[in-house]
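User: Structure with adenosine-5'-triphosphate, tokens only please.
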Amino acid sequence: MRRLHRTSMSDTATPSRDRNAQQTTGSRDNASVPTPALRVVDLACSFGGVQAVRGVTFDVAQGAFVGLIGPNGAGKSTLIDCISGRNRSYRGKVGALGADITRLPLYKVARRGVVRTFQVARPFPKLTVLSNLMVGPRDQTGERVERTLIGGWHGQERTLVSRARSTMDVFGLGRVENNYGSELSGGQERLVELSRAVLCEPRVLLLDEPFAGVSPVNRQRLADLLKGLVADGNMTILMVEHRLEWVERLCSRILVMVEGSLILEGTLPEIRSNERVIEAYLGPSTV
Ligand SMILES: Nc1ncnc2c1ncn2[C@@H]1O[C@H](COP(=O)(O)OP(=O)(O)OP(=O)(O)O)[C@@H](O)[C@H]1O
Ligand SMILES: [Mg+2]
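Assistant:
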């Protein structure tokens, strides 16, 4: 079991936390410390007077499935936006698989293997499911709709169609391949979003509330799919999720954000027994 790593607002804001963060992913012996999938150092982001993220530092080990929890407004989505390059107005450093991706735009971050999904899934309403997947992750690869639609079904496109169909099969979207984005249920929208991200063959997948809008019946299926993605150890997932049930089932390690700060990381039992987390997030009745 990993040691609970407790941080305060002040020490997350110091560069020395970088060393601490490295320890949380495994060995302290520098020679044998593997390159983390994700390294975030002292990341801070404000909107006017609102400090959404306040000097957050952590590592995510390669192959890990890590949960990011916290109350509404804690800064979780802002953190994902900054890591993924959707928001580049932040202070601090972000690294992925040994490369510095600090303030790179979304599509360049995606090219480095870090791909995200959005809290609100937004398939193109007037494109079919297949075309939605063919467009490539919106804002991530720099692909344009026209290039895919006008370019004809040659070479690369044909391969992409074939890969898209395989992905749709895996995600249970095969029977709605020709449905328009506007015709999809919330759960299907979520699966289209996820399929599109997976088609980018990410090494690091950032998921912002993947279970939102998914029917209770399909949640187990989605959980199995997510578990399958990390099963061979080649993909790393950082997942924002409010539903602790799924965090508990999927994640080996959990990060807790409150009011912009990373206050704690550990396993769910460790998190559940922490007074500050109970007070700030879980509430006494949920533990
Ligand atoms: N574009 C923006 N402009 C101004 N303030 C913003 C913007 N985006 C986020 N905020 C503010 O930053 C803070 C963190 O918001 P964020 O969406 O990151 O929280 P969250 O943890 O993802 O919340 P939730 O669980 O509700 O999705 C909040 O106070 C929010 O109001
Ligand atoms: Mg959010």
